[in-house]
Amino acid sequence: MAAMFACCLGCCGDGGSGHIPLKEMPTVQLDTHHMGTDVVIVKSGRRICGTGGCLANAPLHQNKSYFEFKIQSTGVWGIGVATQKVNLNQVPMGRDTNSLVLRHDGSVYHNNEEKNRLPANSLPQEGDIVGITYDHVELNLYLNGKNMHCPASGIRGTVYPVVYVDDSAILDCQFSDFYHTAPQGFEKILFEQQIF
Question: Residue 151 falls within a domain, yes or no?
Fold first, then answer.
């Protein structure tokens, strides 16, 4: 009996050779290694201010991703998806093939072409929550939980959530614990290890 107890402690107890510690999954947040030179990231990688853009630290690998941005202070801003080739010092984004973004004026741009536009009476204001769904083909926008029926597409390759600010804009990113329920079939961004 004592031998069996000792074996159990050796295999399952503190410091036993059979114990494998669980690896904590990283948190999706704004990536300070992929941001413009005049960007400031605070609040544990969730708030952006300054001038320029920043990518999130996780690509959108899963089929249907959802994330949100809260407009804390208005100004010039944009949100959407971009490849790692995007110029994070160039505002506004959407000027080339490396980004697909909703701009503060309600226009959605990709490759210097307006792909869609929010209804005039639905421009995001200070305090509003803008949700984004992306399914590797189409980006869709939600304002305070309501579908804006404003799809846009065209970007190719591995993309990341992107946000840019200028002219005193401050935005907060929400990659989990959303203000509004994710649309059916969409979920928070998962790191590649979490998918399999």
Answer: yes
